[in-house]
Amino acid sequence: MGVFLLLLVLIGLETSKAAAQSVGVCYGIVANNLPPAVEVIDLFKTNGIARMRIYNPNQATLEALRGSNIELAIGVPNEEIQSIANDISSAANWVQNNIINYANNVIFRYIILGNEISPNDPTSQFILPAMQNIYGALGNLQNQIKISTAIQLSLLGSSYPPSQGEFSPDAIPYITPIVNFLSTNGAPLLANVYPYFAYISDQKDISLEYATFTQQGYTDIGYQNLFDAMLDALYAAILKTGASDLQIVVSESGWPSAGGEGATTENAAAYYTNLINHVNSGIGTPMRPNQSIETYLFAMFDENMKPGATSEQYFGLFTPDKSQKYNIASIN
Ligand SMILES: *[C@@H]1O[C@H](CO)[C@@H](O)[C@H](O)[C@H]1NC(C)=O
């Protein structure tokens, strides 16, 4: 790591200490070499990471979280959505087993129904009724725990310039009632936001500097970084559904260190450091200025059994032996 990079890391640290805690980390477990949950929760604590996203109601993780003060975003896996949508007692059982049984000493922030469900996926029709059933089953926890879903930005049919952002014709009938439900309940929409994938798919128009927050100055459309442009395109699309007050929470963002175009340790270190700095800074985006941006870094560990592109296995902030890949001493 060069002196320049080290400097960036140190600046990031200093800023983040004073700022509101807006950064969490996704704890994915698609691997066969990860430490036990108890050690992972300790690793979150020793690194000052105050929020966690998990994808399944893993009982060992929930047990290890007891008394930890880590705020949790917990996923309902895609395979369970349909039965929860069709059967109130199935929703009630899920909430009893994974929320109520732990709620006395685990802090639940969100229940996330579905991750990156495409409008063409048969499961998409069950997301809203599943959200409604889980909401009903929460009873007096309704005000404390927000129900949402995590979308991918491919739901946008148009995203450039950001002010022209809108959902694709396919996505509109799927996402509009969900957005209305969130708005009614004061819950945010969660979105997985990856400048990395936008960058590797269009290096002709997108520079590495723009994608990693290192561009000097603003583009002619008024943006200094791609992350803000992607977020604002989604804000513009949400506005067009009629929900003006909805917040976006970034439920995943990251950059791989290997396994693909632009996937280097140096680029990833710059991305994570600058992302943390930016979302904690309180600058916000051009359309939503002057606020910190709640963001979950993807991910805690390199996951050696992730399918898809090779780079999918190299998004960790830590290796499975618990060493930091980027010398970010305190992530929050
Ligand atoms: C954001 O903060 C700046 C600087 O304090 C201020 O000039 C501007 O009016 C604020 N914008 C909004 C939308 O609050």
Write a brief structural summary.
This protein has 332 residues and is an alpha/beta fold. Helix content is 37%, strand content 14%.
Structure report:
It catalyses: Hydrolysis of (1->3)-beta-D-glucosidic linkages in (1->3)-beta-D-glucans. It comes from Cicer arietinum. Pfam families: Glyco_hydro_17. Keywords: Glycosidase, Hydrolase, Signal. Belongs to the glycosyl hydrolase 17 family. The protein is an alpha/beta fold and 332 residues long. It has one domain: TIM Barrel (Alpha-Beta Barrel). Helices cover 37% and strands 14% of the residues. The chain is built from eleven helices and ten strands. The strands form two sheets. It has an eight-stranded parallel barrel, surrounded by four helices. Strands 6-7 form a two-stranded antiparallel sheet. Helix 1 packs parallel to helix 11 (265-281), helix 5 packs across helix 6 and helix 6 runs parallel beside helix 7 (172-185). The radius of gyration is 19 Å and the shape is globular. The two termini are 21 Å apart. Residues 1-19 have low confidence and may be disordered.
List the helices and strands and how they pair.
Blueprint: H1 3-18, E1 23-26, H2 37-46, E2 51-54, H3 59-65, E3 71-76, H4 81-86, H5 88-100, E4 107-115, H6 124-138, E5 146-152, E6 156-158, E7 166-167, H7 172-185, E8 189-192, H8 195-201, H9 208-211, H10 226-240, E9 248-253, H11 265-281, E10 295-297
Helix pairs in contact: 1-11, 5-6, 6-7
The protein binds 2-acetamido-2-deoxy-beta-D-glucopyranose.
